[in-house]
């Protein structure tokens, strides 16, 4: 099930995506995909209202508004190597603030304090219920689903500052979307990033050093995760620069494509 958060006529709601989005984009589908508006929110039992709106008539928003985004660095060996870093023995976590989150189609504003901004395509885990000290066998129970993410990074700032708060947490540095896929095996999914249609990153989640189970167990030993919180699981090799005017797209098998343009910060 794909659950999107969207705006129409000034109202914000969640809806279940119905129809073949990929076929519609290719022009091979009869009729376009629609959103069946749900009653309530997706973090508890909900009903579909039966009230449907065309997907192309709404503005997709970030699929969730997380209290916090917990990101894991250096979770792909080739990516760690390309930046000259060792592979960490345990998950290496940092935070991105909620103010960094944007949705599909929103602009990434190039920060004025950096001259080297990079894309990092990632699988994002969306938490579905409040949890802490989660045992490995119950990790699936606390996950709502998965979405695409771009851990946009001011690489030059990251290199010169010991803390990554500014390099990883600036406004618009965490695009998420286009929706949450709730029925997905994340063990070995293809991840691709393109910039202006040119492939930059290509990898698979099966290359992760620490699995999603590893990450959730490790993080919830230390902190409570809340419904809607997001865990970024690391990026494969191939990270590279973004420039004003670029269009960057993150595609994950079984989920879809998250696309954003880079603009000058005003």
Structure description:
- The chain has helices at residues 21-26, 77-82, 155-160, 165-169, 212-222; strands spanning 2-8, 11-18, 34-39, 47-54, 59-60, 69-73, 92-96, 101-102, 107-110, 117-119, 121-127, 143-150, 153-154, 174-181, 190-195, 198-204, 230-232, 240-242, 247-252, 256-264.
- The chain is mostly beta strands and 266 residues long.
- The chain folds into two domains: 2-60, SH3 type barrels, CATH 2.30.30.370; 69-264, Alpha-Beta Complex (Fumarylacetoacetate hydrolase, domain 2), CATH 3.90.850.
- The strands form three sheets. Strands 1, 2, 3, 4, 5, 6, 7, 8, 11, 12, 14 and 17 form a twelve-stranded mixed sheet that branches. A five-stranded mixed sheet has the order 9-20-19-15-16, with no helix packed on it. It has a three-stranded antiparallel sheet with strand order 13-10-18.
- The radius of gyration is 18 Å and the shape is globular.
- The relative contact order is 0.21.
- The mean pLDDT is 96.
Question: What would you say about this model in short?
Answer:
With 266 residues, this protein is mostly beta strands. It contains five helices and 20 strands. The protein folds into two domains: 2-60, Roll (SH3 type barrels), CATH 2.30.30.370; 69-264, Alpha-Beta Complex (Fumarylacetoacetate hydrolase, domain 2), CATH 3.90.850.
Topology:
Blueprint: E1 2-8, E2 11-18, H1 21-26, E3 34-39, E4 47-54, E5 59-60, E6 69-73, H2 77-82, E7 92-96, E8 101-102, E9 107-110, E10 117-119, E11 121-127, E12 143-150, E13 153-154, H3 155-160, H4 165-169, E14 174-181, E15 190-195, E16 198-204, H5 212-222, E17 230-232, E18 240-242, E19 247-252, E20 256-264
Parallel strand pairs: 6-17, 8-14, 9-20
Antiparallel strand pairs: 1-2, 1-5, 1-14, 2-3, 3-4, 6-7, 10-13, 10-18, 11-12, 11-17, 12-14, 15-16, 15-19, 19-20
């Amino acid at each position: 099930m794909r659950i999107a958060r969207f705006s129409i006529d000034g109202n914000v709601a969640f809806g279940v995506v119905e129809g073949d989005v990929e076929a519609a984009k290719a022009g091979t589908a009869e009729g376009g995909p629609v959103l069946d508006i749900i009653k309530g929110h997706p973090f508890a039992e909900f009903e579909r209202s039966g009230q449907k709106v065309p997907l192309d008539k709404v503005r997709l928003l970030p699929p969730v508004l997380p209290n916090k985004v917990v990101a894991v660095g250096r979770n792909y060996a080739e990516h760690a190597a390309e930046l000259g870093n060792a592979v960490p023995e345990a998950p290496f976590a940092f935070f991105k603030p909620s103010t960094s989150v944007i949705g599909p189609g929103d602009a990434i504003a190039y920060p004025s304090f950096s001259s080297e901004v990079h894309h990092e395509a990632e699988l994002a885990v969306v938490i579905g219920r409040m949890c802490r000290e989660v045992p490995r066998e119950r990790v699936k129970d606390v996950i709502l689903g998965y979405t695409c993410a771009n851990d946009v990074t001011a690489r030059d700032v990251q290199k010169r500052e010991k803390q990554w708060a500014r390099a990883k947490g600036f406004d618009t540095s965490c695009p998420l979307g286009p929706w949450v896929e709730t029925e997905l095996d994340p063990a070995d999914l293809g991840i691709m990033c393109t910039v202006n249609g040119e492939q930059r990153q290509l990898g698979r989640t099966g290359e992760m050093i620490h699995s999603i189970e590893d990450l959730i167990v490790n993080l919830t030993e230390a902190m409570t995760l809340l419904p809607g919180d997001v865990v970024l699981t690391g990026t494969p090799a191939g990270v590279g620069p973004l420039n004003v005017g670029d269009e960057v797209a993150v595609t994950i098998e079984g989920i879809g494509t998250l696309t954003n343009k880079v603009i000058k910060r005003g």
